Amino acid sequence: MNREELAASIDHTVLGPETTWADTRAVLDEAASHGMNACIPPCYVEEAASYESAPETIATVVGFPHGQHAPEAKRDEAVGAWEAGADEIDVVINVGRLKAGADGAVADELSDVVAAVPVPVKVIIETALLDDAEKRRACEAAVAADADMVKTSTGFADGGATLPDVELMSEYLPVKASGGVGSYEEAVDMLDAGAVRIGASSGVAIVEGHPESGD
Fold this sequence. Notes:
- Helix 4 (71-84) runs parallel beside helix 6.
- By secondary structure, this protein is α/β, with parallel strands linked by helices.
- It is built from 10 helices and 8 strands.
- Belongs to the DeoC/FbaB aldolase family. DeoC type 1 subfamily.
């Protein structure tokens, strides 16, 4: 994978609770200058969409970070984000519903989000909170909802992306490995394990770690 292809696979991310517009603007600048996508808080999507230095693809989050919003709130949040200019939606599943065995409710909720917006939807399954059987059920719900991708983590639970989780999830849908990926080597390992997208606040370091960056 060349440097340009690597950069295009990265969602350069800023989603902390204290994130300001200035923080978001800095990530947009870095993403645009390095050829990456950006993943930003929903409250800044409208500003980002009209920002002159924005990257080509802007993703945002829905039901973040715990996934416990009412289904209607998630759907409306997704629609609002799309209307504000988001190119992709990363939605958090309701982990509690999944653990309680309400897989149909999880899939229905995701289906409502997918059907409500004409842009790609990634499903964050929060792998650190699930055992392997639950991860498979979460992926099955994402498939049933016709989601475009599954994503490992919000970054707010203990633990992030792991190679075994990426391998497991890639049996179902394309995978976004997110949470704890901080270097070029770690990103390459995730891609080799089956990920097609990397979510990281260290996007610049990952891209600049590519061997071509030293040319």
